[in-house]
Amino acid sequence: MSNLHALTVPKWGMSMEEGEIAEWQVAVGDQLAVGDAVVDIETSKIVNTAESTCAGTLVRQVAQPGEVHKVAMLLGVVAEGVVAEGEITEAEIDAFVAAFAPDAAALNISLVADAAEPEKPAPQPSYGESPAKKATPAAAPAAQPQSALSQGPDDTDVKASTVARRIAKAHNINLNNITPTGRHGRVSKQDIEQAAGIRVQAAPLVRQGAGQAISATVSPLAGRSTVDDSRIAATPVARRMATKMNINLNDVTPTGRRNRVTKDDVEKAAIALTGVADYREEKLSSMRKTIAARLTESKQTVPHYRVSVDIEIDSLLQQRKYMNDALGHSISVNDFIIKASASALHAVPDVNVQFTGESILKFDQADISVAVAIDGGLITPVIRNAGNKSLPEISAAAKDLATRAKNGQLTVDEFQGGTFSISNLGMYGVDQFDAIINLPQAAILAVAAGKKQSVVKGDRIVPATVMRVSLSSDHRAIDGSVAALFLKALKGFLENPASMLL
Amino acid sequence: MPVKTYREAINEALRQSMREDPTVIVLGEEVSGGAGCDGSRDAYGGVMGVTKGLFPEFGEARVIDTPITESAIIGAAAGAAQTGLRPVAELMFMDFFGVCFDQIYNQAAKFHYMFGGKSSCPMVIRCTTGAGWSAGAQHSQNLTNMVTMVPGLKVVCPTNAYDAKGLMIQAIKDNDCVIFVEDKILYDTSCEVPDEMYAIPFGEANFYREGTDVTVVAISNPMHKVLAVVDRLEKEGITCDVIDPRTTSPLDEEAILESVETTGRLVIVDEMTPRCGMAADISSIVAEKAFGSLRAPIRKVTAAHTPVPFAPNLEQAWMPKEVEIEAAIRDVLAYNGGV
Questions:
Q1: Which of B1, B160, B258 sits opposite A161 (nearest CB)?
Q2: How would you write A231-245 as a 3-class SS string?
Q3: In a domain, A136, yes or no
Q4: Which domain holds residue A220?
């Protein structure tokens, strides 16, 4: 049984929960290598081909074309190596299928309706109930896989331990099919586990904190006792541990019986002496890994430089107020910045580029990636051809993308392939910041908050709402003067929004 | 199905067994009551009234009042069992085992072994146990552990009327010496009990509740405290396997180990003193055989390691309490690897 592997519905993109089986690319008996195309699956967004995650021989197609299966559910069964027909019996495969449990935890999705959750019995009315009455099974869990072990006559009268009966019910196993070896000829938990090739265990404990981490050495610190501690009362384990960690027992506060130093006391002392603070360790999400890898690559390989400029946005704010109040739009300052950036990219196309190593790609169309903070990271949905879109169109697209980004509903083509990025932290009131270039693009605009400031105009000091923007550019593709020209154009558009109409 | 008390259920089991099998006899102090006094032959039916009504039906040859001599009661019963009778001897309190322990563990428990299997000892020793009556240190102990450790004895401790009847019928049919431990506190509890005879096999645990988070094993009366706690916790979404082994010898290890394998957490509750009690015993079995399944250290909730106090308030403090049971369950659930 151990040489059977499950092919499961993969998760493509954050929004994917289930897929419809379109077509199998391989037949039962075919040889598979890791990465081979196995079956086409259609999601709400795309049709994609699931690849084999293991090498061997396909022995069963569990999911049939037209069926809809949830992510992580069973597609098919692969046997290791080259398997002749009939070498693995149908019963073995049945048992494997029956025992299959989706790896819901790894995918972090709810499979409540499908998972083999042991159901809770209804509360019993009084404590004195007879065991005879207890045989009444609760409703069977939904969507249990059928298998050879499921078949058979009513098994209510088969003698089985309570736990065994529970497991059998959860896995849709008929007790008539199990050879009993338990006490008084009962079917035991072990009997079922052996027959079905499963193992039922308690959920593993989620460990928190890092206290256990103290193990090896604590470097000798100034001021620590050097007096002989062999006469200090300590448990053997505590003494051994203290020796290993180079801790003098004179420095440990004893709390044990008869004032002995315990293992806990040594651990506490170790923390006090090393100043190891508590922390929680969180595994990297795939998004965090991607962010880490891509930004590290960008910051380490791209020669960044920054050019900043202050932009007065009073005129913009006034016109925006009119558009929103009088015309009923809800256009944000950021929508203006997107539009103005696209216009500036049209005016200074040398910024709308990508450096490939061999060449520089120059884009005609300004596809603006807008950084959106989402739970656990950020994502940059793209507003295509923003230069040729009206402000209301940009506004609607930006809202839609941001909302769906936060709900994890973006498709790959919606957040890949921009030509220029904008990161706006103005809503947090920052005065100025620099952004890291979003590869393979060559420039990113960092937008700070618009704030009322005193500005010298002619010889007079006047109030103005000033917003500082910084352009981070890839010097391999964009020279300083080009960046400056871009900012000049951008400043022009934002300070005179009507010029974007030209 | 008719509802009967624990007392009535045992009485019915005795009565039906005596009707069915003429070799079954009952003996003990005042099992009929007032022997030798005219007109008072069915006065008591034992100190707890369990054998009430047996005397008029079966007469003095089968319902025998004895002198106040525990060694004689058990010695006579053990001897009678060698001659083909199936005696059910009553000792008022389990605490009095000390007086007749030689008859129990050296004689009754050993006949089958010492005589090379040519003899058996089909007798039942009924006794009462448990604190909560303010009966003092010599009338309140639960010494189930002391007899459980003796090879050759079977030990039964029912927690409800249904089990009491079925286990008593099995005990009488059994060919070994069976210690039948009745918890005083339970005599007036009741539940549905069939009128017909039925036997519950020894060594099969009863699951009072089923759950996935914690396994709780309880012996005798504390089971009812456990059920109250578990039912409260269920409202919070914490579900427990609540296991009543029903017999401590033989013990249904399989049921306990299987359950612990699926919950990873174990709380054991009994009303014995903490050292060498049933909780300690079950704890050692699980630690030995299911160590890899445990997600948290095993917790025992037992009585205090002192004689049972007479003062009612102290007695209550001495017994395992609901708050302790709840705390233990929460503890094993909250256990985070000792961090």
A1: B258
A2: CCCECHHHHHHHHHC
A3: no
A4: 146-274
Q: Within a domain: residue A456?
A: yes
3-state SS class at A417:
coil
Q: In terms of domains, do A497 and A460 share one?
A: yes
Cβ(A74)–Cβ(A8) below 8 Å: yes
Q: Is the ipTM beyond the 0.90 threshold?
A: no
Q: Do B255 and A163 touch (CB under 8 A)?
A: yes
Closest in A184, A203, A206 to B201, CB measured: A184
The whole-model pTM stands at 0.53
Q: Which of A274, A299, A315 is the last residue of a domain?
A: A274
A202–B contact, CB cutoff 8 A:
yes
What sections of A171-313 are H helices per DSSP?
189-196, 236-244, 263-274, 286-301
The total number of structural domains that make up chain A = 3
The predicted-structure confidence for A440-461, as pLDDT tens digits, reads as follows 899 999 999 999 999 998 899 9
Q: Do B190 and A205 touch (CB under 8 A)?
A: no
Question: Is A35 within a domain?
Answer: yes
Does A338 lie in the same domain as A416?
A: yes
Query: Is the Cβ pair A201, B160 closer than 8 Å?
Result: no
Contact map slice: B 99-128 vs A, CB within 8 A: none
Residues in chain A: 502
Q: Do A208 and B190 touch (CB under 8 A)?
A: no
Contact with chain A for residue B207, Cβ under 8 A: yes
Select from A127, A161, A202 the Cβ nearest to the Cβ of B254.
A161
Touching check for A184 and chain B: CB below 8 Å? yes
- Residue at A372 is within a domain: yes
Q: What is the CATH number of the domain that holds A73?
A: 2.40.50.100
pLDDT tens digits, residue range A357-402?
Answer: 889 999 999 999 999 888 878 888 999 999 899 999 999 999 999 9
Quick one: A347 and A492 in the same domain? yes
Q: Are strands A18-24 and A304-312 parallel, antiparallel or unpaired?
A: unpaired
- Rounded CA gap, A394 and A387, in Å? 9
Residues A342 and A477 in one domain: yes
